[in-house]
């Protein structure tokens, strides 16, 4: 069982789409594949000291990658799109963007 919040939230996802969602107060994180929405909500609230309004999760299948004649797959991953309550912001990773 995953208990430490820093084991649940692995890293932020910094992409063009996730940066556009900051205007809607939505933050995207790569999370542990076995973490559920309740665990993700508690972890974000504990780590960043904010109030979470909603959590959406997405399972991402690993892509096929080739190097010459050798082929392999990237690992599967799970993303969480976290919507914060009005007036709350996360500045640790996203401060220079919005």
From TrEMBL:
<comment type="similarity">
    <text>Belongs to the universal ribosomal protein uL23 family.</text>
</comment>
<keyword id="KW-0687">Ribonucleoprotein</keyword>
<dbReference type="InterPro" id="IPR001014">
    <property type="entry name" value="Ribosomal_uL23_CS"/>
</dbReference>
<dbReference type="InterPro" id="IPR012677">
    <property type="entry name" value="Nucleotide-bd_a/b_plait_sf"/>
</dbReference>
<dbReference type="InterPro" id="IPR012678">
    <property type="entry name" value="Ribosomal_uL23/eL15/eS24_sf"/>
</dbReference>
<dbReference type="GO" id="GO:0005840">
    <property type="term" value="C:ribosome"/>
</dbReference>
<keyword id="KW-0699">rRNA-binding</keyword>
<dbReference type="Pfam" id="PF00276">
    <property type="entry name" value="Ribosomal_L23"/>
</dbReference>
<keyword id="KW-0689">Ribosomal protein</keyword>
<dbReference type="GO" id="GO:1990904">
    <property type="term" value="C:ribonucleoprotein complex"/>
</dbReference>
<protein>
    <recommendedName>
        <fullName>Large ribosomal subunit protein uL23</fullName>
    </recommendedName>
</protein>
<dbReference type="GO" id="GO:0019843">
    <property type="term" value="F:rRNA binding"/>
</dbReference>
<comment type="subunit">
    <text>Part of the 50S ribosomal subunit. Contacts protein L29, and trigger factor when it is bound to the ribosome.</text>
</comment>
<comment type="function">
    <text>One of the early assembly proteins it binds 23S rRNA. One of the proteins that surrounds the polypeptide exit tunnel on the outside of the ribosome. Forms the main docking site for trigger factor binding to the ribosome.</text>
</comment>
<dbReference type="InterPro" id="IPR013025">
    <property type="entry name" value="Ribosomal_uL23-like"/>
</dbReference>
<dbReference type="GO" id="GO:0006412">
    <property type="term" value="P:translation"/>
</dbReference>
<dbReference type="GO" id="GO:0003735">
    <property type="term" value="F:structural constituent of ribosome"/>
</dbReference>
<keyword id="KW-0694">RNA-binding</keyword>
């Amino acid at each position: 069982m995953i208990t430490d919040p820093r084991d649940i939230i692995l890293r932020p996802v910094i992409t063009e789409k996730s940066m556009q969602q900051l205007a809607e107060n939505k933050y995207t994180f790569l999370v542990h594949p076995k973490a559920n929405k309740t665990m993700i909500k508690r972890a974000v609230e504990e780590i960043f000291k904010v109030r979470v309004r909603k959590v959406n999760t997405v399972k991402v299948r690993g892509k096929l990658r080739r190097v010459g004649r050798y082929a392999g797959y990237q690992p599967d991953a799970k993303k969480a799109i976290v919507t914060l309550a009005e007036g709350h912001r996360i500045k640790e990773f996203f401060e220079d963007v919005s």
